[in-house]
Amino acid sequence: MIVLIGFMGAGKTTVGRLVAAKLGLPFADSDQVIEQRTGRQIRRIFAEDGEPAFRDLEHSVIAALLASQDTVLALGGGAPSHPVTRSLLAGLPVVYLRVSFAEAMSRVGDDKGRPMLARPDIRSLHAQREPLYASIATLTIDTDPLSPPDIALKVLEGLRLAWIVLLAGAWKPIHALRYCSRDHDRRGMHAGRDDARLQRRLQPGGKRARRLRARRA
Ligand code: S3P
Q: pTM to 2 decimals?
């Protein structure tokens, strides 16, 4: 599972598709899945049910997607604001496609399919979300000057690197574990156990001692 997060216009869907094709993984976009499942456009869900109902729906769709087959998954820009969605992302490779406010606005224009763009506080929403995205990201890519294929390449490179760092991190405890068991040997813990077994066998009341006494008699 690879998850792409970021503000509207960051390129999550376009880049996600390219990354999925490179990796031979299926691609899913949470907004598209919501639209398929409800048979309604995001804009209509916002207008008819309101934003809180959309957020609940968004969370349950994402939870189901995260629990299913390995996918490159692009999340709607507001999805990481849901605390339970955030907790589900812990431990997964989460790629934050960072876009400046000005660049985001120039990419999405006044897309009527994105109801959040009509909010008067859209600029401060962008500012509030930036640290939130960064806090859950395994990898952050500044997308402003890049084309979607270049961003996709950076995602793949970055994930490879993150993987190596992860493996290096995991190697330490494994090595420590091995070292500990060798250390136990050196401190004679196994020998100690064998000594105890031998002593038990040779105890005056023990089987071996009785056998030896019987042989001698
Ligand atoms: C939203 C972003 C949209 C969509 C909905 C709400 C947001 O997805 O989920 O309009 O709150 O930022 P994109 O980020 O794919 O545009």
A: 0.78
Distance of alpha carbon 54 from alpha carbon 52, whole angstroms:
5
Residue 202: Cβ within 10 Å count:
12
Counting from 1 in the atom list of ligand 1, the atom nearest the Cα of 78 is: 11
pLDDT tens column, 10-58? 999 999 999 999 999 999 999 999 999 999 999 999 999 999 999 999 9
**Rounded CA gap, 12 and 211, in Å?**
78
Query: Over the stretch 126-182, which tens digit does the pLDDT of each residue have?
Result: 999 999 999 999 999 999 999 999 999 999 999 888 777 666 665 444 333 333 333
Answer for the pair 78, 122: CB distance below 8 angstroms, yes or no.
no
Q: Are 3 and 94 in contact (CB under 8 A)?
A: yes
**Residues 208, 202: Cα–Cα separation, whole Å:** 6
- Sign of the torsion formed by the C-alpha atoms of 37, 43, 49 and 50: positive
Domain segments of the chain: what residues? Answer: 2-168, 172-216
- Cβ of 115 closer than 6 Å to ligand 1, yes or no, is yes
158 within ligand 1 shell (Cβ under 6 A): no
pLDDT tens for each residue of 92-114: 999 999 999 999 999 998 899 99
**Atom in ligand 1 nearest the alpha carbon of residue 114:** 10
Superfamily of domain 2-168: P-loop containing nucleotide triphosphate hydrolases (3.40.50.300)
Ligand 1 atom, smallest distance to 12 CA:
15
